[in-house]
Structure formats: C-alpha cells, structure tokens
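Researcher: Here's the sequence for the chain we discussed earlier.
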Amino acid sequence: MKKEGFTLIELLIVVAIIAILAAIAVPNFLEAQVRSKVSRAKADMRTVATALEAYATDANNYPKCNPYSYAFAVPSQYPSDPAFGPVLERLTTPIKYITSSAALTDPFKATKRYSSSNFPGGPPAALVTDPRDYQVAELYHYMARDAISTTLIQYPERRVQWWFLESCGPDRAHHNMGGILLNTTMSSFPTILSSQYDPTNGTVSQGSIFRVGGQKTPLGLDFFNACTTAQK
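Model: Thanks. This is the structure I predict for it:
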C-alpha cells in the first residue's frame, strides 16, 4: 500500500496556522509577564515598607539615602565618600527586618534615567556610567528627605522625615525624583504625575511605581498621595 506524505500546500497551511496562533499568544504571554512583574514590585515594596517602619521604631529614624538614590552602597564611590555608604543594607544586617535582600531587587531592572534636565519631553539618559554600579542599579531606588522636601538625607545624624521607594516600571527608566522635585513648583504637578506608571496607558508604558512612607509634606502631598492610592 502506497503512503502519501503532506503536500507542500498542506505544509504551508500548517505553518501559517502556527504563525497566526503564535502572533496571538506571544503578545498575551508578554503582557502577562509584565503584569506579573508589576504585582511583584508592589508586593516587594509593601514588604520593604513594613521593614522600614520596624527599623524606624528601633532606630528612631529611617535609613538615610545616597545622592544616586540607590538602595545599597555605591561601589564606584564607597568608601571614599560616606554619603555613598550602606543604605537599605541596614534592613538585613545586623537585624533582619527582611529575611532576604531579594525583596530589594527590581524585577524590571532600570537601564535609563530621567532627571530635571530631560523630563518631561526628553529621552532618558543612561543610568549607569561605571560598570561597578550595575548591580546596585538593578535594585529598587530609595530616597530619604527632610521635612520641607528640599534636602536629601545622606548622613545618619540627620533626621529623615519621609521616604519613597521606586520601581522603574516596564519602560525600565528610573525617575530621579530628587532632581525633578527640587526643580518643580506646585503648578507643575500634572507634569510630575506623568512619571507614575498607569497600566491604562498601556501595559508597557512610561512611568515608575512608587511607594511612600513617613511624614507627608506640602510640596509632595498631592503627588505622593496620587502615587500611593493604587497601592493600598
């Protein structure tokens, strides 16, 4: 009995069907991945926020930050400059306020940065210029500020009034809120709000995911309340 194989036309039809199914399935899969990372970032930051409050209860202050807003010491600077020393390492050593530093790793891993010089309107700049800093740049960003929202708290003897954590979000661009907030006014809040990730603008869209704690200030009140509403 003679057996016949598939004809060329039949094979092309099968390939076309597979391609159509892949074109439908792959974008849905990628969007699901992004949504999963967003959920993980928010869960991580809730964990870190709880740890920060526990630390503040014991130390009567929140951890200070560094000028780059990296969550850990900056290898290219520390220990030559104490302002770039340990930050959220204090949540893991010597007392474990969080069980693993993995909760500090941003699933999106920032590669770009917006600052007052290129936000809004301009393209983001490269986040890291020194290869030694790549690893700490992939963590969530952390900033600690004073009561009037004009001074970064980089030294342990200074009092931290409020703080915020940032995941760079799906666009993988960190918003340097130190520079942006210091170069803004109350009238520009609508522009600043565009730095917040909003999935209704598209699953992969511009914006960071923020979580804020400590004392709210007149300068940051509207912006940070808006950023935290969806996280509660």
